[in-house]
Amino acid sequence: MRIPNFFPSRTVAFYMGRMFLIRTFAIVAGLVLILQTLDLLSESGRILAYPGNGDPEVWRYVSLRTPQIIAFVLPFSTLLGTIITLSTLNQNSEIVALRSSGLSAHQVLAPLLLAALGVSALSFTFNDRIVTRATATLDQWKDVDYGPIPIDRGDRTNVWVRDGNDLVEAAQVHGKGDAVQLHGITIYQRQGGSLHSIVMADSGKRTGNAWTLTDARQFDVGSDKAQKIGTIRFGANIRPDQFTLANVDAAGMSFGGLSQAIGELESAGRPTGSLKAELWHKISDPLSALLMPLLGAVAAFGVARSGKLFVRAVIGMMLGFAYFVADNFALAMGDMGAYPPFLAAWAPFLLFLLIGESVLFRTEE
């Protein structure tokens, strides 16, 4: 049984794919240059404000910020590259020649879809290996106002935990499980929604089913007096994982790291809906490049001399940008818990996949 060839000739496939990729990455380079320049103008003052910072720190910021900008503009560039490629082919009557040779609309788009799939794979790898590390490092650098970044040993900082009506703040958290060590602890003790005293201690550790603070000091809000209270125990209902799993930054974690963190949170009985949406979005976001040839195909299948080529290109851009709006909206709903995680990450992709196919069939002449 002979399998029908879904692609046009090898020469045509390479020609269209190369044209699409060149235009896409040219747009990426232009947008990155413009956006990086504008971003550097707004941040260079803060970078140089730290004593001792100079040109090396500015270039370091550029090296950390550029991957984020590339990840941001790549889907838009894929859309614009698709529209420019198809508009050029249409204007030169190359689409008409391909259609006249008996190729279907999907066969005409096949080289672009394959190239877009390669862009998606490249985008996922780039985001997972480079962008996440750059984001995590840049966030740490911003937290210290572009000063020296402390060595990251997996410790947690500025962790807040609730103990009944009381609030517990730990400036630093070291270790895991029952070996967790707390440093710079502040307990805000409340009654009836009002603060009545503050307990502070330099260090604390897990002993039995509670936490022990040494050399604790207490400040009474009502009497405005402070006193030393020595060793105290608190937080019988606070588990160690509430300190160690308090903050999970999905943007600064790889797919595997985020998946592991979600597993740990689930084992501790913590909500993970918004993080699961972010995890699925790490796949659906790069795959958005695969949608762009379908959404931009409206610019290809129409008679160029009818004078409506520009209108078709604008329609393709509107469809593409509508997808980005819907994607951000669904992800926000997922973060709020209004959408299930899978739906928040994949609903816009599947919806606009159907829209792209529908527009492709309706606009084909």
Automatic annotation (TrEMBL):
UniProt xrefs under InterPro entries: LptG, LptG/LptF_permease
UniProt keyword annotation of Zinc present: no
Membrane topology: Multi-pass membrane protein
GO biological process: lipopolysaccharide transport; transmembrane transport
Protein name, per record: Lipopolysaccharide export system permease protein
Localization per record: Cell membrane
GO terms for cellular component: ATP-binding cassette (ABC) transporter complex
Residue intervals passing through the bilayer: 20-38, 69-87, 108-126, 309-326, 338-361
Alphabetical UniProt keywords: Cell membrane, Membrane, Transmembrane, Transmembrane helix
Domain of life: Bacteria
